[in-house]
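Lecture notes, unit on protein representations.

Consider one protein chain, 469 amino acids long.
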Amino acid sequence: MTNWLPDLSAGEGPLYLKLAQSIEAAIDSGALPPGEKLPAQRNLAFDIGVTLGTVSRAYALVHERGLVAGEVGRGTYVRERKAHTDTPTGGIRSLAGTQPFEAPVGKLRFDATGAPHVGQAAAIEAILTKVAADHPTEISDYTRSAPGHWQEAGALWMARAGWTPETEGIVVTQGAHAAIVSVVTAVTAPGDRILFENLTYSQVARALSLMGRRILAGETDAQGLVPDDFERICQQQHPAVVFLMPTLQNPTLAAMDRARRETIANLARRYNVLVIEDDIYGVLLNDTQPMLASLAPERTFVISGLSKSVSPGVRGGWVSCPPHFAARVKIAHKMLTGGTAFLLAECAARLVLSGEAKAIRTRVVAELQARETLARAIFEGHTFRSLPQIPFLWLQLPEPWLSGTFKAAAFDAGVLIDGEDEFKAGRSDKVHHRARIAFSNHGSDDIRRGFQLLRNVLDGGVAGYDSAS
């Protein structure tokens, strides 16, 4: 990270504007080159004697100008600026070939689990072209009603393990995350408690916390949420909703057997707790255990979508609701998202109903199996959990690695991964000494290179990592 400090004596206007101008000038001059990490906002505020809000406003402004990019928890980085090339037709700059900001320059991204590229773009292009031809009016207007085949597609995609959702209970959503947040918004109020496993899909927990819900974390074992702790929390804290991934838990890969599912379903019924069953990874597996929705249909919402198995960019998602809840969830989804995008929802439905989504999923699973096999070979001798169809592994870090230190060392080696703190529903003193390594991004050569870089970091140990550099 740079030791650069701004000069606020120049420029005009309020301090945040002067700071933004100073950052832009440093980028133009090369003092802040592409890929350079800007100082942490809190540190910079202390160093130059301004408030954190001033720095935040300045960083937001240069972000809006396209000069920097970044994510919460990773920092802010200078974007590479390419010369604009005018087209021969009137000077409108083409966006063809431009690259979105996905990671700091030169870093391999092993922190995302969307479906890998297996040639699905051709099928999606053909469907989008047909949708535009068939529905020119609908794609140029707001979506005011959902065609019945959107729900039929969701029911077809979600059905498995002997369970088939009722079509009228399906709500079409813009991805699984929107589905989960919409359900919680529809069935709870600010101040209500939502129970998660202690390691979980924490982004939704954080989103719900921002919306005024109180987050609880339950103890887990190799099968996920521990029933005794679930009952204790129900007796003492009275959660309104529990969020679970019984078929494949992210990031631990825990899976509940039938007995555990039956126990959880019975406890949820006894203590009147609604259940959100996230099955986004379930469509990648041939799991035969009963869905919680088949054990407690009157209180279970099932979440599914296309992001892990077909394409995250389509934003295809569905939630299957218990009787009488669908209308409330649909309204909540519209209020939260602005409404379903016709083009994407129609594309998702056609992918499923045509059989194309199933064909893509087959290729995705084959690709993931090859990558998991490669991971097993390269990380041989280390302890981790993985499954052939799943796009990540849960690595146990050898002594004396800490999760945060290993994540930082991996970053310095050129690889972005997620440490265990990324998955904690809230503050916790429990330490697992684990890291999740996801491998759905990049091509096969980059996957092999990234695995080998991480293996080198592991083998080098903390003695080979200088965190003060």
